[in-house]
Amino acid sequence: MHIQLNGERREFASELTVSELVDQLALTGRRIAVEVNEEIVPRSQHAETRLTTGDCVEIVHAIGGG
Fold it and tell me: What is the pLDDT of residue 66?
């Protein structure tokens, strides 16, 4: 399966959920936002949202400051 991840084509052995992708990218526990095909995926839906070939995924890190 291939997806566009933050503008780069990435290959994966099989279909993943958003949660599995976050795990593979070692981003678990970090403050991130995930968008799939221009739609924000709430953290509560990461485990049930399946990615398929051709999906465009954007992951951004929240940065605190003041």
Answer: 62
Rounded to two decimals, the pTM is: 0.90
According to DSSP, the β-strands at 2-5 and 56-61 are parallel
Count CA within 13 A, CB hemisphere, residue 20.
Answer: 11
Spacing of C-alpha 10 from chain mean position:
12
Contact 2, 57 (CB under 8 A): no
- DSSP, residue by residue, 45-63: GTTT-B--TT-EEEEEE--
- E-assigned strands of the chain? 2-5, 8-11, 32-36, 39-41, 56-61
C-beta separation of 33 from 60 below 8 A: yes
Which residues, listed in sequence order, are joined to residue 44 by a DSSP beta bridge? none
